[in-house]
Task: structure prediction
Amino acid sequence: MDGTKRADIEPGARVRVVQKQDQQSGETTEGVVQDILTNSENHPHGIKVRLKGGVVGRVKEIL
Result:
């Protein structure tokens, strides 16, 4: 499942995110959602979240 809908993501969910500096390469980081940072219901590039451990990125895949 992709991460473009806020309703599909909740704290504690395991996801893959792309960090700002990795957008060109598309490299993803896997982790557990701590906070949801995007307020809108949808975002074409993925909902922005903070993972446990402090990594911030846009959700590319919900595991």
User: Anything to note?
Assistant: The chain has a mean pLDDT of 96.
